[in-house]
Amino acid sequence: MSVGRQRYGILCRRLYANEEPAFARTLNGEHEGEYSTVRAEATLDVDALFTIVSTLEYCRGLHSLRLVGLQRATTSLLTREMLSAAVVAVRASASIKLLDLSDSALTDDLFANGPGSPLSRLLLNNTNLEALLLRKNELALASAKLILTHLPTNRTLIELDVSDNRGFKWPGMAKEFQLLFKENVTLVSFGASLPDPASTAVLSGFLHAPGRMRLLRLAREPLLESNIGQLVTLLTHKQVSLTELDLTYAQASDLGVTRLARALMSNRSLISLVLAHNGIATRGGLALAEALKTNCTLTSCTLTSNLLNDAAVVGLAGALSASQTLTLLDVGRNPIGPIGAQALRQALHTNKSLTSLGDLASLPLAVGLRSSLNWYLRQNVTRRDTLQLEAERTVAQRDGLLELLPPEERALRRKIFLLEDESVRLQGEQSRQALETEQVSVLLAETIKRNAQLVDTVAKLQGQVDKLRKTSAAKKRSKSAGSVRRAASKLTEAQQSAAKHLAAIQANWARAGQEQGQARARSEGKKQGLPVWAHLGGLTPLEHAQVEAIEAAARSSQSKSSGPSQSRSSGPESSGPEGSGPSGLEDSGCESSGPEAEFASAYSAGYARGFESAYAPDVLGGFQQWSPQGNFEGFAVGDGLASVLTLSPRSLAAAELSACWAAPEAIDADKEARARATLVRESSD
Q: Which residue ranges have biased composition labelled Low complexity (predicted)?
């Protein structure tokens, strides 16, 4: 029993901790160079972990130490003392090259804060550690600052993976990343969950040294289209040496995956590609299938937890029939139906290299179909193991035969065997190049075919463009003609409106001229001494002459104080119809004297001078108009004649006529009211 094993047993007894058998065998040297708590054969609690960490320094020949999954709920089982002890053991051991502390709920307080923190001691002045894996922890800003501070001067660390730490946001650290990849010349593998612009800075650093980088993991953060473009540039670079690319949860979608697939067609360095949780559907799956047909270096492709349907899986199955290098195609947790599964089973008839399709239990398939796929995969695994055993047996037999030969012949035989191995290797390389040449020829033929299709499509599109141009020109002409018609219509409407306005203006001018004429007539009437009421109607010169006759008759009647009135013995009234005109006054039973005689004489004088009607002053102002037949035609008030009543003068009493002829100041109010009532009554009848 080794010293380390004895010390481990003593510590376990003192702390009442259960011994972990796998670690005990590691202390005895019974290991394959690695110890992992994932393979622990006993439950690990805080005390058990303390005993393991305290005796790590006694592990000899150990090159990988994986203390992973050490948490309960969200609390780490590792304390700061345990982490410090583990760091001391790693720094003291010349054999440990890899330290994995993933998925252990590490925080800044446990691992990065304070002077002499475990993380700073691992990165500063380290002489043997080459790989540090800190995935799926709770590290935050303090750890990020330590990494970007000490890593540029570190000359031993080759791989660093701090991806899937939710607290890592790398705020404002793009320049530090640029400095990191400029000054650090040993780091070839890097993994982190980087938001933009840190992701852009990291990819720029990889592009500055495409022949140095081996692994890139950009998980748990969405990539921009510009980042996808940087990856495409990196994969198609002539000096690229990238072998592993992990874009889990990068939200590349069909568009980004299609661009990556085109880059994979010409890439000859990538071995492993992880595109889990990227929302890849039919378009992206078919693009990857086309890339796998021509790519001859990719051995592992992970497409788990996407949106691959039967159409995409049928395309991938076609790629499997043409590829003999792919050993892992993980399509687990995808909505694959029976059609896609049947296509995969048909492809496995000819494909002898594929050994895994991922978690088939997660696929919605029938039990028989899933069992059939597993059977074909097991056959491929068995064939691979058989070939490996045969190769090992051949090497063992050859080494045994060499031991029987003399030293000189043994050395000669070794050289011969080395030459044979080299010949086999060259043959394999030649066959691989021939396969690549064939694939390139197929790709070239496909490219020529697609170019021809593209030319035809361009010609069709050109015809459609010409047709659209003609249609557009016709529409423009039609639109122009319509615009002209609308403009002409508007012009016509404007002309009509202008004509209406002109007519209105002319009417206004005529009315204004008429009003000016009336004003002049009234002015002339005043000059001639006419009464005021004669000017209210805007009389014509003929009407003025008749009014003068009426005025003369009125003055004549007023000059006579009393006496018999002169009867009308002659005049134009005799020519009128019987019972009409001024002669009809004799039939009314009234004496032919007073206003009647004045009216008759005024009418006779007016008719003799060629007038069509006679006028008499009214008690309310203005004047009355009478026809030649003796009918009352209305009142002339203001701007003209207002036809209100049509009465015969013979129905009026002599007293009422006298009242109508009297001056306004001498009118009795009762008599005027009776006269008006009589006029209204006669009008209504």
A: 480-490, 555-577
